[in-house]
Structure formats: C-alpha cells, structure tokens
Amino acid sequence: MSDDDQAHKARTDEALRRAGASLVLLELGGHTATGFVLTTEGHVVTSLHAVASARTITAVLPDGLRTQVVQVAAVDERRDLALLRLSVPDLVPALPLGPATLPTEGESLQVLHARPGRGPEARALEVRAVQVLGDWLTLLELSRTLPEDASGAPVLDARGQVVGLATAALANGRALGLVIPARYIAPLLVSPGPPRPLSALDAPRQRATRVRHVPQHPVNLLEGCATPSVESVAALLGHAINVGAPAYNRGDVEGCYRLYAHTAEQLIDERNDCPGVQRALRDGLLRCEALRDAEDRAWALRDTFDGLMDVIGRWRHARPSQPPSLARRPPPKTYLN
C-alpha cells in the first residue's frame, strides 16, 4: 500500500470513528433502524418509513446506554425524513452535516449503520446515478442495495463529510439503496416547531401501508413506436408526475387525479402511433372506474404511469443505436410516495 493509500485509509477510518460516536440504533418493537444525532439538544434524524409504524422507540447509544424517544420534532413526508428528539440531551456528540454540493456519478461513499449487539458496520458503495425527481427532490442511487436496518444511516464522502442519509427503498418492485442529500435535512433544524408525541407518525404510517400495483410491461409494448413518439410520451408522463405528486403531497388529491386523468386521455387521443401505450392507459382509466375514492384513483393512474416509464426506460437501454447522452440517462423510478 502506497503512502497516499495509507493516508487515505487513515482519514476514512477517522471519519468513520467520528461518525460512529454520533450513531444511534433505534429499536422499534420487532425491527431496528439507524439514526444519527445532529444537535447538542439531542435531535436524531432517520428515515420516516422506518419509524412510521412505531408505538415506542428506544434509542441505543454507542456506549450501550438506552433511552426512550418520546418526541417528534419534525417530519418531511415528501422526502422520507423524520427528526426525533432524545429524552435527555447532550448524551453523544453531534455529527455536523456537510455542504449542499452533491456527489457525482461514480464517486465513492461510505454508509455507516448501527447493528444490535455489535459495532457499527461501514459499507463502501458508489453513486450509480443522480436522480432528479423534480424541483422538490434530487437523490442519489447507490451501486448496491442496503439492508432495511441501514435506513437512516449517515453517508460520508471521501473527505469524511456527511452528504446525506441512506435509505433502503423499493422502485417498481426492485430493491434499491438511496441517499437523501443533506440539503433536505438541514431545513428540519431551522424551525422544527413544538415537540409532538409519537402519534404524529400515525398519518405517515397509514400512507406507508399502501400496496402498489405497477404493471410490468414487456418491451414489445412499444413495438412500432418511433423514437420521438416514445420520448414525447415519457416527457408528458414525467411532467404530469412532477406536477401531480407535489399537489398530492399538499393535500390536493382530487387535483392530482384530474391532472393524471387528463394526461392519460390526452395521450390516448394523440398517440395513435403507439397503440401499446394507448392500451395501457385505457386499462388504467378502466381500473379507476371501479374505485370510488379520489386517492385510490390517483394512485391507480400513478401506477399506470410508473409502469409505462419503467418499460420506456428498459426500451431505451435495449436500443444500442441511441445517442450516448440518452443511453446514460437512467429511467425515472418511483422512490417515494
């Protein structure tokens, strides 16, 4: 090992040791998650989906001390973040967040997650893709999946700075390792609001139980479609999701559904050159007719859109003659509700 390699390893080991001192194992009655302390007041950030079903939360600190978590300081449902507060402050050092600058594709990162009865585990991973889901969220897709108990773990770059929070997620039925960037965590600390009881996690818990029904289409669904037509379909669907999802998250469920339905009807009317797309959209609208609740109808069409976006992504990757810039662009995925 060269002197430079040894120096790099020493810096990495020191960064992991420092981060490990702020790590918290969250026991949630049957499963565990990871969190890390951000302030001397005892604020702990973790993944919302990991704690959303919790009736009791016990924080196990690095020295083995156990303390109850009874307060929720802030919740960001759109970005799957929860800010909890320990019952006793200043028990472990705070781990400062790094700069808002995002790592780039191919960059090496370290995910440090807590484990019951053992020391923390560090996983070296790379950034597979930077995914822009809209102006409300840009996230990182990692090169490998993560165990569920790694959700909430700090993610460090090569300089030892915390660049975000790790989460184990599903996209179109496929397990993924993701990073929610630090830029979305910092605002939770600016004005967390008055402390709330754990029951504040009940609404996210109810939404997290929704079962998705995203169709898995064969690539030949797009047979006969010209490339400009497929890209036009993808652009219109992507725009509808980028507008409809924030509206849904603001509580305008009916508006979200109407936008999705209008988009589906528009594509059915305009895309006679893509009969497979028309057929998939008609199936989605037909499914909505059997649903009374606007929220269920909105999700039925979102599932329909995500199924089409998924097959378009696979269609792109199966075409060797496509321009390099298009071949490198990962297909949009459904990461968060």
How much β-strand is present in the residues?
Answer: 25-35%
Could you tell me the CATH topology label of the largest domain. Thrombin, subunit H
The string of secondary-structure elements, in order, is HEEEHEEEEEEEEEHHHHHHH
Give the biggest sheet.
6 strands, antiparallel, barrel
Report low-confidence residues grouped into runs of 5 or more.
322-337
Strand order of the main beta sheet, please? Answer: 1-2-3-6-5-4
Overall pLDDT level? 85
Q: Please tally the β strands and state the result.
A: 12
Shape: globular
Note the main attributes of this structure.
Thrombin, subunit H, alpha+beta, 9 helices, 337 residues, 2 domains, 26% strand, six-stranded antiparallel β-barrel
Give structural notes.
The structure is a single chain. The chain is α+β, with helices and mostly antiparallel strands and about 325 residues long. The chain folds into 2 domains: about 1-210, Thrombin, subunit H; about 220-330. It has 9 helices and 12 strands. Strands 1-2-3-6-5-4 form a 6-stranded antiparallel β-barrel. Strands 7-8-9-12-11-10 form a 6-stranded antiparallel beta barrel. A hairpin with a 4-residue loop joins strand 1 (about 25) and strand 2 (about 30-35). Helix 7 runs antiparallel to helix 8 (about 295-315). It is globular. It starts with a helix and ends in a 9-residue tail after the last helix. About 40% of the residues are buried. Mean pLDDT is about 85; it is low at about 320-335.
